[in-house]
Amino acid sequence: MASSSSSHRFPDWVMLDRHSRLNYPEVSLDYPEELFRATYAEAETDAGDHIDVCFRAVPPPGASRFYVNWRPRQDHKDGPSSSRKKNWDARKPPIRHEKGQAWWYTDAVVPYGDSLCYVDYFRGILFADVLSRRCQLRSLLVIRKLKKLDSEGARNVIGVCVCVTDGGGTIKFVDVVTTAVLFPGRPCSAASSSFTIKVWRLRSEDIKTWDLEFTIEDTELWNLQGYDHLLRETPLYPLLSMQEPNIIYFVLSDIDVGWQDEDNTWVVVVDMLNKTLVSSFRYTTVFSNSIESDGNMSSISLATQTGFFTCDLSKYLLTTG
Questions:
Q1: pTM for the complete prediction?
Q2: Which InterPro entries does UniProt cross-reference here (predicted)?
Q3: Which strands, in side-by-side order, build the sheet including 236-240?
């Protein structure tokens, strides 16, 4: 990693775009933006292919993302350039689950303590003790009691999220409960947009019980001070701050998928405990293959109908300077 001449401290957590930017023009150490120079790394594969990687880490609600530039080796006649090999130890951990569980679909994976949590929003969470030599998957079939399949049985997950918060010590479940079918880019009437945001907390002492912690209804949200200029739309892609357990982020949008009109996409930050609007920011979408178009408030995920996920990788990056 390269260091810059000025001091820069990376955020403790970020909102990460789910899509990396692949095969961008090469980002050299002379690139003017400090965030790229400070996280630039390069490597070579066993086959001799060259890979450059940069991590753009900006404070929320800015969009952070990875940039990967892969350049295949031109001449492969001599075979791989390195003989170093590493063997992976693959294991099939036993699954302890409740009766009646026929199948599973992993919607998200989040870390919690020494475990990885595999989340199925319509069934529950599988806890994997990844640091144990005798790793087991422990099933927690409780989310299905909070979140039901809609009448058509569709997996509509753009209004739900399982997040870790409070420095990683708490798991919460955010659910935007609405009678409307959530689909970004489809404006809803005021009647069909009625919703309630619910935040549930998992009890850490037994990891079996969810407590309803916060709720806010549509009219309460719309009447918050400072909300008058924002869209009266159902919130999409909710998530929680990794540091402040009362702070929720969500997206508002009424643009059709594929439009380059960036005037009607916002990220909104709300304090659920005090029921106050913390801030709101206008987002832009990214279409051109240019690093210069990727500002702090631009998102590839929103253009592809996927949300952000929270990540604290940035806090492990060294302060530059």
A1: 0.81
A2: DUF1618
A3: 236-240, 247-253, 265-271, 276-282
